[in-house]
């Protein structure tokens, strides 16, 4: 099975070599986050400023923001003051406000996600913006490309950003065919140094998955354009056929004011790395409130403000009751691991679902190298064995949730372009919890006693993989 989001081994071990990559990244490190220590008393927390809340008409007044937060968060078991303090701290470290008035729809696995995205594309009247890590020339990729070409020829502007490593196995003719139809394409950070305008930084990748249609609907999450997603996993699958199991992933469809944030993210990448400016289309139409969900759209850049990392760490540090993480590639840095163990030791229910089968053996064993420390620290570990796990989600205290492209590893937090949506809402969190429970039902728990009995060859693989965790 192909490695879908890492630097391929022949690039990782190329003439640049490990020593060269060390030099390239020697100054890169994740920041310490201690904005909200668990020991802060209630008076200190309530002294924090109220988080900024925007909607379709702009920034809400403090009184209206407070009223909205009381309405949406009143049923949370951890209390309104705790949620407000976390939301204010999150805004402070990420620089992104909460955006109210959105409809957020959970999409599970490839078939449901692709059907929703293709339906939106078919209805496009002005423009389509697609940013993806993988765009394969396979049955699903060809169908997706054909639809985009049809819309371009019908007068809808189509702009595509694709990562040069993620699409390294895709023939250039596949993209040339779209280009000949009038679609504008931007290959992010070409592997060939001769095609670059700036310095060669092969470790910097665009791992985002974004689709924006007419500036009115946005999609994001973990799903790439690939036939790997042609079948659903056993999760909510109608067939329940174990011989036709697809990848387990999660995506979002969003309408409302937050769509403009995705448009800015896409255009920022296009204008900062491309040599052609998109046509002057209606990228920012007047957006109306479409629902009642408050979200924060977070984008991270290589070697820049790791906003998604900060949001994750703050939520973990402040967790009161539960931390439920589903992670395709779980290779945590020391600070994330310490925060998770600290949460478990103060009585928080910390559960992590990780892959039992994977598309990346090196990352798989690197993740397993943390099992002993996690289990000894009170973290409960589960392995999903019925499908290739590719989802990147978390739900904390049944009120704070995130879905996106970001894995819990240094590559995602430090070296990739990533995008995540944080939803602070008890109703949405309930849906996330239900999905987590369904995944857990299809997973096997890893116990400390059982884990200690694993073969010595596995221990060796874990030790070796751990040596490369920074570059995975």
What does this structure look like?
The structure is a single chain. 37% of the residues lie in helices and 23% in strands. The strands form 3 sheets. It has an 18-stranded mixed beta sheet that branches. Strands 10-17 form a two-stranded parallel ribbon. Strands 14-20 form a two-stranded parallel ribbon. It is an alpha/beta fold and 472 residues long. Mean pLDDT is 86; it is low at 1-27 and 36-47. It has 17 helices and 22 strands. Helix 10 (307-317) runs parallel beside helix 11. The chain folds into 2 domains: 33-101 and 294-467, 2-Layer Sandwich (Endonuclease, Chain A), CATH 3.30.870.10; 103-273, Endonuclease Chain A (Endonuclease, Chain A), CATH 3.30.870.
Summary of the model, kept short:
The chain has 472 residues and is α/β, with parallel strands linked by helices. The chain has helices at residues 9-12, 17-25, 42-46, 62-73, 80-94, 109-122, 139-153, 172-180, 259-273, 307-317, 334-345, 361-368, 371-376, 410-415, 426-441, 448-451, 456-467, and strands at 53-55, 58-59, 98-108, 127-132, 157-163, 184-188, 205-206, 210-213, 217-221, 247-248, 250-255, 293-300, 322-327, 330-331, 349-355, 380-384, 388-389, 392-396, 400-404, 408-409, 416-424, 443-446.
């Amino acid at each position: 099975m192909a490695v879908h989001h890492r630097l391929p081994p022949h690039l990782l071990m190329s003439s640049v070599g490990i020593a060269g990559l060390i030099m390239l990244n020697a100054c890169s490190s994740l920041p310490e986050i201690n904005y909200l220590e668990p020991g802060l008393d209630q008076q200190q927390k309530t002294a924090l400023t109220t988080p900024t809340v925007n909607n379709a008409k702009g920034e809400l007044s403090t009184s209206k923001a407070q009223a909205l937060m009381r309405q949406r968060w009143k049923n949370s078991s951890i209390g309104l003051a705790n949620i407000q303090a976390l939301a204010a701290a999150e805004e402070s470290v990420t620089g992104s406000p909460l955006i109210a008035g959105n409809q957020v729809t959970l999409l599970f696995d490839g078939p449901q996600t692709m059907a929703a995205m293709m339906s939106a594309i078919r209805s496009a009247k002005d423009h389509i913006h697609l940013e993806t890590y993988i765009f394969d020339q396979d049955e699903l990729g060809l169908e997706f490309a054909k639809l985009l070409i049809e819309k371009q020829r019908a007068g809808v502007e189509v702009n595509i950003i694709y990562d040069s490593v993620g699409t390294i196995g895709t023939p250039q003719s596949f993209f040339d065919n779209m280009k000949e139809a009038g679609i504008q394409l931007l290959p992010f950070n070409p592997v060939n140094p001769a095609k670059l305008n700036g310095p060669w930084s092969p470790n910097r990748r665009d791992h985002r998955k974004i689709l924006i249609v007419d500036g009115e609907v946005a999609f994001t999450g973990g799903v790439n354009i690939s036939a790997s997603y042609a079948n659903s996993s056993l999760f909510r699958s109608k067939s329940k056929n174990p011989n036709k199991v697809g990848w387990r992933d999660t995506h979002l469809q969003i309408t409302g004011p937050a769509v403009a944030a995705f448009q800015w993210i896409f255009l920022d990448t296009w204008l900062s790395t491309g040599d052609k400016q998109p046509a002057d289309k209606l990228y920012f139409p007047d957006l109306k409130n479409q629902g009642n969900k408050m979200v924060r759209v977070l984008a991270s850049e290589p070697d820049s403000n790791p906003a998604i990392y900060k949001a994750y760490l703050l939520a973990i540090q402040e967790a009161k009751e539960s931390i439920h993480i589903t992670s395709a590639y779980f290779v945590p840095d020391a600070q994330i691991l310490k925060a998770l163990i600290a949460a478990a030791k103060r009585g928080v229910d910390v559960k992590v679902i990780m892959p039992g089968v994977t598309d990346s053996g090196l990352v798989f064993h690197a993740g397993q190298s943390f099992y002993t420390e996690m289990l000894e620290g009170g973290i409960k570990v589960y392995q999903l064995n019925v499908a290739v796990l590719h989802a990147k989600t978390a739900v904390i205290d049944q009120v704070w949730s995130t879905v996106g492209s970001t894995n819990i590893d240094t590559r995602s937090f430090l070296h990739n372009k990533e995008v995540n949506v944080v939803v602070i809402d008890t109703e949405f969190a309930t849906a996330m919890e239900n999905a987590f429970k369904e995944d857990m039902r299809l997973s096997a728990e890893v116990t400390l006693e059982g884990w200690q009995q694993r073969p010595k060859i596995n221990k060796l693989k874990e030790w070796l993989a751990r040596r490369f965790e920074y570059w995975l």
